[in-house]
Design a protein that fits this description.
The complex is a heterodimer. By secondary structure, chain A is of the alpha/beta class. Chain A has 4 helices and 7 strands; from the N terminus they run ααββαβαββββ. Chain A has 2 domains: about 80 residues, Fe-S cluster assembly (FSCA) (GMP Synthetase, Chain A, domain 3, 2-Layer Sandwich); about 50 residues, no CATH class. Chain B has one domain: Up-down Bundle (Ferritin). The chains are: A alpha/beta, B mainly alpha.
Chain lengths: ~150, ~250
């Protein structure tokens, strides 16, 4: 009989799979892994898309499939679940801290960046409500004058 | 009910698909790079929503067609989008005015659909609403900035509003199918969305120092498919040419 990994182990593996567009955080940090369970002899992983048109959604599915195969999982079902819709509230604190270190201001309940992720100054202004990916907006620090990405709060 | 539901889903998916395509025509041409990126991102959100709406339409139809088939292999008379979204982009101001009018309607609609008795529709609406609230916030801000801007931008925005106001009316047109869906708790009557739309329009257009035209005339024929404008066919020749020229082509 083939030994099946326990659920916690699978979560740890998923926490090693980087987000394709922001590779410093994992899929688990991003809060898009909704559920891991066995369905009969198959492993079932349920994911939530971030933005409905995000081109990374398909890449993420492939990355999960590849990672599981590397760990010897061949019988895999990946579900996409849109309800309840993904929210930045599901992002982990570890993920938010990594975003900050990477130079992306993490989502904030204020609806705008708490501070410049580069110099830490609090006076920042909006450049554009959209940025380099669907999940980000473009801001500028009024102190160090650097522009930076802000992970939008949804 | 099945036919009404299919028609309803086409109307949702065709509005988001055609508007998405129109906005994407700005890619590489917008006045500044931030606007270029913003428009492309909004087009992407709408395209994602299209996949959900037309995906469900295909499932409900049960004829073996996919969302891609519905998007790429139907002709103009089978599309059910409102004429507003197929109109040419015009200048940047006209594009933003059209976006604002559609977004104001779209937020009102999705707010109601999020409580649909059809769980699949409620899920798509709840997901889309988060994105569309953001679209509304942006288009409203831009309409105010341009309307209450320079003499030139104000004049262009007033012209855009005068030009497009009569095309917004079709979004609230209500037929027998809408009544059947409303009776089943699946979707609101489009006519019920008008009051909420008006409140949004009056507030934002007031701040933008623009005058709402007094006419109550509304162009019609898109959501019924009976009389699209000549612009839709031209749009489809661009959007569908690859699948028409190379049937079944994939990446």
């Amino acid at each position: 009989m083939v030994k099946t990994p326990d659920i916690d182990t699978v979560w740890q593996w998923l926490d090693q799979v980087p987000d394709p567009e922001i590779p410093v955080i994992s899929l688990v940090d991003l809060g898009i892994v909704r559920d891991v369970a066995y369905q009969g002899d198959k492993l079932r992983i349920t994911l939530s898309p971030t933005y409905s048109g995000c081109p990374a959604t398909r890449v993420i599915e492939e990355d999960v499939r590849t990672a599981m195969r590397d760990h010897g999982i061949e019988r895999l079902i990946i579900n996409q679940q849109i309800s309840p819709p993904w929210t930045t509230d599901w992002m982990s604190d570890k993920g938010k801290a990594k975003l900050q270190d990477y130079g992306i201001a993490p989502p904030s309940a204020k609806g705008q960046p708490e501070a410049c992720p580069i110099c830490g100054a609090g006076v920042v202004s909006l450049v554009s409500q959209f940025g380099s990916t669907p999940c980000k907006a473009h801001w500028r620090c009024e102190e160090c004058r650097e522009s930076f990405d802000y992970f939008k709060c949804i | 009910m099945g036919d009404h539901l299919f028609e309803f889903l086409l109307r949702q998916g065709d509005n988001t698909l055609i508007l998405s395509h129109r906005i994407s025509e700005w890619c590489g041409h917008a006045p500044i790079i931030e606007e270029d990126i913003a428009l492309a991102n909004i087009a992407l959100d709408l395209l994602g929503q299209t996949q959900m709406w037309l995906g469900l339409a295909a499932e409900v139809e049960g004829a073996g067609r996919s969302a891609d088939d519905l998007a790429m292999l139907r002709d103009a008379w089978d599309f059910r989008n409102a004429i507003l979204v197929e109109r040419p982009n015009g200048d940047f101001g006209q594009t933003m005015m059209r976006q604002f009018l559609f977004d104001a309607y779209h937020v009102e609609l999705l707010n109601r659909l999020a409580n649909s008795t059809d769980e699949r529709i409620a899920a798509i609406a709840a997901k889309s609403l988060k994105e569309v609230e953001y679209h509304f916030e942006r288009s409203a801000t831009t309409v105010i900035a341009l309307g209450d801007g320079s003499e030139e931008s104000h004049a262009r925005m007033q012209a855009a509003l005068d030009d497009q106001w009569t095309f917004a009316g079709e979004l609230f047109e209500t037929d027998a199918g809408d009544h059947a869906l409303n009776d089943a708790g699946i979707a609101p009557l489009p006519s019920e969305l008008r009051a909420g739309f008006n409140t949004r329009a009056i507030a934002v257009l007031g701040d933008a120092t623009l005058n709402i035209p007094e006419t109550t005339f509304a162009h019609s024929g898109g959501r019924s498919g009976k009389r699209h404008s000549e612009h839709l066919g031209h749009l489809l020749t661009q959007m569908q040419w690859l699948q028409r020229a190379y049937p079944g082509a994939t990446w």
